[in-house]
């Protein structure tokens, strides 16, 4: 449900109001500053397939549409409503605001991790677009089931290599992940048993299966924000409430680094944090342009992830994590 959005030029006239009235003006900002400074990251704890070409115009700068199904390629993700962001001419005030926004995001994500980890398992539709070896790959829409302990993941592709299945469970199958290809290939090629960290397993993705899911995504974001705090070079951090994603209220967070020295990989990151789950349900990341870049927003997009139709489960059946499940194709 990674969807289409209007040109980024629409942002320019609607971006400069109301980050909680500049975090309730300088006085409130100063109060927050002295209460949070010099908090370390762990202290902050106490505090829904379009064509690939359309993804680069996707969420979240304008209004979203409904999510697509695997048979309807012309419907899209809900887009968040446009918000406006104040600009500050005071560098010190801006730095305090950025630091508070970073601490706010860490606190939200830690709360979300704690809540979701207390649930044994969940199901969701996971969508991703990634740039691999310089090429932006086609969008994938995947049915995902995840168990927290022992960590286990089942995936079934709903488009692309439709019917492909993947199963990984800690301490099972000799630490290998099982992959059964879809389509005609799946009829003739036996089940693959791959090292999750091996070259073949990671040839089609930027992140290993061992880091799949909402909790792991949230932890990765926290690691980046903690690094920002430790570096002392705070990125411009915009927090906007009042957005929606997959029909659910969200907070939109935009991180923008001023210089490559401050973040060697990421130039900009856009995250939608679900207001109820306190978890990142949409993330879009950009890297740095080079001298040959023509369209910065399109050519520097390196990854985009979305989680929709999230259902928290008390406990999924044990058969979900077993390769001999008669509903699966791993033995065929």
Detailed description of the structure:
By secondary structure, the chain is α+β, with helices and mostly antiparallel strands. It has one domain (about 1-330): Lipoprotein localisation LolA/LolB/LppX (outer membrane lipoprotein receptor (LolB), chain A, Clam), CATH 2.50.20. The chain has 6 helices and 12 strands. The chain has helices spanning about 20-35, 50-55, 90-115, 185-190, 215-230, 295-300, and strands at about 120-130, 135, 140-145, 150-155, 165-170, 175-180, 190-195, 235-245, 250-255, 270-275, 280-285, 300-315. Helix 1 crosses helix 3 and helix 3 (about 90-115) packs antiparallel against helix 5. The two termini are about 30 Å apart. About 40% of the residues are buried.
Q: Main sheet, how many strands, which sense, barrel? A: 12 strands, antiparallel
CATH superfamily membership, which one? Answer: Lipoprotein localisation LolA/LolB/LppX
In CATH, the topology is named outer membrane lipoprotein receptor (LolB), chain A
Shape category: globular
**Whole-Å distance between the termini?**
31 Å
Order of helices and strands: HHHEEEEEEHEHEEEEHE
Q: Which residue ranges are poorly predicted, with pLDDT under 50 across at least 5 consecutive positions?
A: 4-88
Give the tally of β-strands: 12
Q: What is the C-alpha radius of gyration, as a whole number of Å?
A: 21 Å
Mean pLDDT: 79
Total of domains: 1
- Percentage of residues assigned to helices: 10-25%
Strand content: 25-35%
Secondary-structure arrangement, i.e. CATH architecture: Clam
């Amino acid at each position: 449900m990674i969807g289409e959005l209007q040109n980024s030029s629409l942002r320019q006239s609607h971006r400069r109001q109301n980050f909680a009235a500049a975090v309730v003006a300088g006085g409130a900002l100063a109060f927050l500053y002295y209460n949070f400074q010099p908090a370390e990251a762990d202290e902050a704890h106490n505090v829904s397939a379009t064509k690939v070409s359309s993804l680069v115009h996707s969420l979240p700068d304008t209004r979203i549409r409904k999510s697509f199904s695997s048979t309807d390629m012309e419907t899209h993700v809900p887009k968040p409503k446009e918000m406006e962001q104040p600009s500050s001419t005071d560098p010190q005030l801006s730095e305090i605001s950025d630091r508070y926004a970073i601490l706010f995001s860490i606190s939200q994500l830690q709360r979300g991790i704690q809540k979701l980890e207390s649930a044994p398992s969940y199901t969701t539709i996971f969508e991703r677009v990634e740039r691999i070896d310089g090429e932006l790959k086609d969008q994938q829409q995947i049915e995902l089931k995840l168990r927290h302990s022992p960590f286990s993941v089942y995936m079934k592709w709903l488009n692309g290599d439709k019917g492909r299945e993947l199963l990984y469970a800690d301490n099972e199958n000799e630490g290998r992940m099982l992959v059964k290809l879809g389509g005609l290939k799946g009829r003739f090629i036996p089940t693959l048993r791959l090292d999750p960290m091996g070259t073949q397993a990671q040839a089609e993705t930027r992140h290993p299966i061992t880091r799949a899911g909402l909790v792991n995504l949230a932890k990765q974001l926290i690691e980046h924000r903690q690094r920002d705090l430790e570096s002392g070079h705070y990125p411009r951090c915009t927090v906007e409430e009042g957005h929606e994603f997959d029909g659910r209220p969200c907070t939109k967070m935009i991180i923008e680094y001023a210089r490559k020295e401050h973040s060697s990989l990421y130039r900009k990151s856009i995250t939608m944090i679900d207001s109820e789950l306190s978890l990142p349900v949409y993330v879009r990341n950009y890297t740095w342009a080079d001298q040959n870049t023509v369209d910065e927003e399109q050519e520097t997009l390196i990854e985009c992830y979305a989680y929709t139709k999230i259902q928290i489960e008390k406990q999924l059946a044990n058969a979900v994590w077993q390769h001999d499940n008669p509903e699966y194709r791993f033995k065929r």
